[in-house]
Amino acid sequence: MSVTAVPLRPVRRGTLIKLWAGIALTAVAAGALAWTGTASTIAANGTVDQYLAWNARQSGVVTTASGLQYRVIEAGEGETPTDADVVLVNYKGALRDGKVFDQAERAPFPVDQVVPGFSEGMKLMPKGAKYRFWIPPQLGYGDAPQGDAIPANSLLVFDVEMIDFIPAALLRQMQMQQQMQGGGGMPPGAMPPGAGGQ
User: Fold this and answer.
1) What angle do CA 74, 77, 78 make, to 5 degrees?
2) CA–CA separation, 193 and 198 (whole Å)
3) Are 51 and 155 in contact (CB under 8 A)?
4) Phi-psi region at 24: left, alpha or beta (left = phi > 0; alpha = psi -120 to 50)
5) Which end of the chain, N or C, is surrounded by fewer C-beta atoms within 10 Å?
6) β-bridge mates for residue 127, sequence order
7) SS3 66
8) Are the CB atoms for 118 and 133 separated by under 8 Å?
9) Cβ atoms of residues 119 and 86 within 8 Å
10) Which residues pair with 91 in a beta bridge?
11) What is the pLDDT of residues 40-58, one digit of tens each?
12) How far apart are CA 97 and CA 61, in angstroms?
């Protein structure tokens, strides 16, 4: 039996470089695809810390020194409230899985009498602003469950629109004046006439 040698043409150097570059590009794309799939699985099923680490890399998300994360949806204009103010907001609160546990329109809140993460977030918002907050458990309710709606150690996700805010002392003064004039008080969720430029 004889073996016939078939001469092979030499492969051009540029062709080999293109081949190796294509293999490397394919490997990088496969790794990125695998990471994306893993990252979204961690985001959906991982711990709160894993979720927050993943969320911190999303477009527009800012993490404060305390660990609150937020994204500006609409910027708003002007000053922001302080601990001494009462805000009027539209909001929706949900768990990480999207289950809504609370929502309201034109809800008044003293800034210093809500969970720390919600207070911190509201103090970032000028009038007309819309933000989304991701409040980690240590800035929310911690390990204390809130009935059946909010399990212990829950990440809270809030969409908030800042309608208005005024100093709490001014609000109390206006309410006292109304009561003295026989006004009987204001309906829930309403700011007094002329308050905060409404």
Assistant:
1) 150
2) 7
3) yes
4) alpha
5) N
6) 77
7) coil
8) yes
9) no
10) 104, 160
11) 676 667 899 999 999 999 9
12) 18
3-state secondary structure of 62: strand
Amino acid at 85: D
- Residue 124 is classified by DSSP as T
Q: Please name every residue paired with 87 in a beta bridge, in sequence order, or none if there are none.
A: 109, 165
The sign of the dihedral angle between the CA atoms of 190, 122, 91, 93 is: negative
CA separation for the pair 117, 122 (Å, rounded): 9
Closest CA to 105 of 88, 124, 86: 88
The per-residue pLDDT for range 163-180, each reduced to its tens digit, is 999 888 888 888 888 888
What residue type is assigned to position 43 of the chain? Answer: A
- Crossing angle of the two packed helices 48-55 and 13-45, in degrees rounded to 10: 130
